[in-house]
Structures are given as C-alpha cells and as structure tokens.
Amino acid sequence: MIGRIGLGRVLSRSLSTAEPAAVSQKLTIQPAIERSPTDLLNALSETVGPDTTAPHFAYIDDPITIPSTQSAKKTYFMAKEFGKRAARELATEWPTLFAFDRDQPRLPAFRPQHLADPLQVAPTEKSLLAMIESREVQDSCILYERMRSENVEVSEKTQMELFRLVTYYNSSNIPYSEWENWAGMRNYGEDGQSVWKSGAVADLLFETLPKTDESVSIMISGLCKYSDHATLDRARQLYKEHRASNGKIYREAFNGLIGASSYSVAKKLAAEMASQNISPDIHTFNSLLTAATRSGKFEERVKSITEIIGEMKELGVEPALSSYHIILKNLVDSKLLESEKRESDEQKNAYNRQLTLAVSWLNEILSGISGQTLVPVTSKCNLFFVEAMGILYRASNEKLAEQLLSIYESKTNQVKMPEFTIQSMFYNRYLQLAIEQTASLNRIYDLYTSMVPRLVGVNNSLSSLVFRKITAASDRHWLLLRRVINDTIASGQLNGALGEEVRKQLCEVQLHTLGTSEREQFTALVQKLVAVWIEFSKFTEERRRRLQRKLSPSQISECALLLTRIGEQQKAYELLELLLDEDASSGEEATVYPRGHARPWAMAELFEDALRKRDTYGAATCLQIMSLTANRAKLEPLANRILEKCNVNPDQKRILQGFVRLRPQ
C-alpha cells in the first residue's frame, strides 16, 4: 500500500484521521491579476535579452545561408517574404486544396481571398465604401468611373470620402512605406517621385463637389504634397480665391503651403493662421523649419531656425525628433559634405565652422531629451538618430556618440529605426567612430563581435579600418584578425584591395607567437583562402565566366609564401609554376592575368626557404620567376648561393650559369 500511495501520504492520512482539525481551513481564491497581452513577452525580453554573439533572429538558419552583408540581408529577407506571398497567392488561387482542413479555431489568415474586382462587383455605394475603407485607391477610381458611366447615383458624402482618399494618394495605390503586412516591401521598396496627376479622379471630384472649406483645404494639401511649379501656383491661387470669398482653410492646408514656400512667405502664412485663430501644431513648425532651410546663406538659415525654436518655446510646443532632424540635416551645407568638394581653405574653414555649430546644437538637444520618454510624433522622427550619428562621426566626437547610443537603446525611447536599413547605418557609423577613436584591440574585438553581422553588415570600409588598426598596434590580436577575415570570406569580398589586405595581414603573422590551436586555425584559414581564390580563377566556362577572378602574379607569390609557411611546399610550387606557364595566362582557358609581377619580398623569402631546405628545384623555380624582373647583376649572386647551398651536379651547374648569362644586363 505504501509503495503505491507513498509514505508521506500515508502518514498525512493517518494524522488527519487520528487528530481532527480544531479549525476548518478555508480556501481563498485570489482575484486574477489584470495583464496586457504583451506583459509576458516584456517579462521574457527583460529576462533573456538579445544574444550579441549570434546573428539577428530573422536570419538564424543553416550557417552557410546566414547573410553577413547588407545586400545579402536584403536578398535573404525579401526571398522569405516573397515565398510567403507566393504561398498566399497559391492558397488564394486554389482554395479547394485546403477545403478539408479542420483547424480550430478556423483562421482566415490561412484562407486569403482575392480582392474585389472593380469591374465585377455590384456598382453600389456599399462596394465603393468598402474599397475606400481598405485603401484600394486605383480600384476605387475604376469603380467610381464605372458607376458614373452606368448612371449610378453616388451621394455627396461618399464622393467626399473618395475625394479624401484619391487626393491624399494622388489617385495611386498606397506607397510601399505604408504597407502593413509586408515588412520587406515596407522597408526596401522604393517609391518613385510622384507629381500631381492632372485631370485624374481628384480633379474631377473637386469640380463636382461644392467648394467648401474642407474640400478646398484637401485640394490645397494634395497639390502641395505632390508639388511642382504648376501645382504650387494652382494651390496658391486656390487659397487666394477662397480667402477672397471669405472662406477659411484648415491647418493641414496651411502646413502644406508653408512647407512649400520661402521663409518670408511662410512667416506671412503663419501670421494669417494666427489671425484666423488656428493654433499651430508640430507639423506647422516642421513646415516652417523646412521653409527656413531654403535660405541660401548659412547665417540666415541659422537665424531663421533659432527664431522658430524660440517661438515654439514661447507657445509651449515641444519640438519633435523630426524637428531636430530637419535642423541637423541643414546646419551643414550639403555641397561641403564631400571632402573632394572642399578644395579651398575658405571652404574647409566654412565646413569646420558649420560642423562645430552642428555639434553644439546636438549637445543641447541630447541634454534636453536625455531621460525623457521619447514617442514617435511623425513618421520621420527615427531619422533624427541616424542624422545625429552622422554628424558625430564627421566630428569624431565619441563622447556624444556614446550618449546618443545610450538614449536610443534606453527603455524610455519608443522611437525605433527600421532594422536592416536605417538602423544598420546608425550602428555602422557608431562602430567605425568607436574603432577609430580607440587603440585597444581588445575593445575593438568586443565592439566588432557584438555588432557584426547582427546589427552592422560586413563592408569594405569597416574591414579596412580594422585591418589598419591591427597593423598600427604593437601586439597582434589573432582572434580579431581571424574573425574579420572569416567575415570577409563569408561576405564574398576577397577580391581587389581587400583581398590583397587579407594576404598582407596573414603574411605579417608571426607563427611562433601563436599557440597550438591558433596555428591550426591559421593553417585552416590559409587553406580555405587559397582554395577559394583558385576555384574562382577556374570559372572559365561560358556560363560562369562572369564570376571568374583570375589570379595575379602578386597574388600567386603571396599565396605560395603562405602555403610554404604551413608546410605545403608542393602546392606552393604548383602555384608558382603558373607564372612560368604561358598557357595559363593566354587563351579562353586562362586563369592568370598576363600583366603584373610577383612580390619581390615574397619571392625572396621563398628563395631563402628553399636554400635552407637545400631544395634545388624550389630555389631554381624562384630564381626563374625573379629573372622576369631582375637583370644579370642581381641574378648572379643568387645563382652562386644556389651552387653553395644546394647539391648541384656539373650539368645542373652549367645550365644554371648559362641561364644567368643569357639574362640582359
């Protein structure tokens, strides 16, 4: 009995039967704690946190497919999204394939439906309002045109709803930036610059509807949003005509006119707003700031911006991060941002003066927003952070960059940049600034491994910067060098100047300073690199020739030297023989560039290594390659050293001396 029930339960049962409780215990059920749907997720996030050594969670996959560059991240993310869209399209096109699914609860997301066809649906106001509500702009226009052609009556209220939609979107479908379900297209999709579609449904409805304050304001706002010279003139004319008839326009129309005008005109429009008792909002002041940035002279621009900020403080309007973004973006002349365009001393002094002022403004801004709860007020608030980091990067101000990063990553900040695009640029600028300002390779290693490739994609400028820091340091940091080289391999950036830098860095590694495991890593890394370069040089088939990267003589000599250092002399001399094989550098099957020369310092070390090992073949091969760039006077001492160090028979001696004698003086 005890075995089945348990000793503890037996004792508890006997105790309860032997001594009845004097007071009965009541079970009290506590009231449920009200929690939001995200409380559990927030608790997990605060407990676990991100793994800085792993790739971004969106890219966790087979290691060979994890992207490391920004372009690869975009390709990977969009491939996943297009796969989902293709699956959804299949489910929409052939719904009968899923007719026997018995999922409970039944999820409409797995049974997508085709959008209503404006040429097939019933031409009723209900159908039109449904399309307007779902923001199917072009379909709404088609259905409205169809209803007009079939003489279907459309109420003024419905026409007004359609007018709002088509004017806001210029009779076009919603831009990628407003796609809700597809993050890839929202972040990576590029919307072209749109100009006002004259004579479209918006113009037709405006002529049909009564000229009320609302309809005129909507039209002015649309014309200013998709502005060119003609549409701006029309918007201003509409404003004058409506004011002449004692009409009033809404604040949104004023904001559009202000943002599209010069600063002097914008101030008059702001005064007109005040006379009509229309209080300005943050969009009004952003429009004023935009108008102020059109001032040609730097001093006038700064004066105008200062006036606007003072007016905001007087009215108690707190600037949004988008307001600061407009200011910072225009404190330095765009024509001075590129160093190539700063030719004269006057331009350089102007750039330094403007950059100093921008840093001063940014310091004040960061002091003001530090510790505050930051919320997105406009859609462009997130651009403040990347613009601010760009200024600090140019000014080499690491202290303020650390403060800016702390504000962005704080829990009180709700303004976040889109990942993989703007946010990656933000962290890339910070990382390069931090690396430039430190001499500690250990700190560089910690920063690099915590951000690359999770937050920052591998790129040429970052890799080159780390290589320069490694070269300048007195001590070598094998872990950092190995990590950067592996990232370079994974990102496919082994060709050109970066590949040359990789070989240079490996050639400068002192093998006697490495431990046993590190030497094994060095050997494996050299083998991998040489194999990659040789494989790409053999892409001689027509279908793969665009991927071919021929070996250069300098590349071959450096690879041979590295192979010799890891004990693979046979492979090294097989590579060197390519420099002496004319067929390897000519014809359609060529794998070696016909131009260029082997590195003298690499060939000198290979020659000395062959002499130490008394390798007659190796020393003679090195001598023949060096003869391609050296004259007889330089070759004779080398030939004499071969005769001294190696076991050379009389025939070999005669051939060697004759070879040197035939070289030009």
TrEMBL record:
Pfam families: PPR_3, Rib_mS39_PPR. The lineage of its organism: Eukaryota, Metazoa, Ecdysozoa, Nematoda, Chromadorea. Keywords: Mitochondrion, Repeat, Ribonucleoprotein, Ribosomal protein, RNA-binding, rRNA-binding, Transit peptide, Translation regulation. This is Small ribosomal subunit protein mS39. It is found in: Mitochondrion. One of its GO terms (cellular component) is mitochondrion. InterPro entries: PPR_rpt, PTCD3, Rib_mS39_PPR, TPR-like_helical_dom_sf. The keyword Mitochondrion applies. The keyword Repeat applies. Belongs to the mitochondrion-specific ribosomal protein mS39 family. One of its GO terms (biological process) is mitochondrial translation. PPR repeats lie at residues 281-319. GO terms for molecular function: ribosomal small subunit binding; rRNA binding.
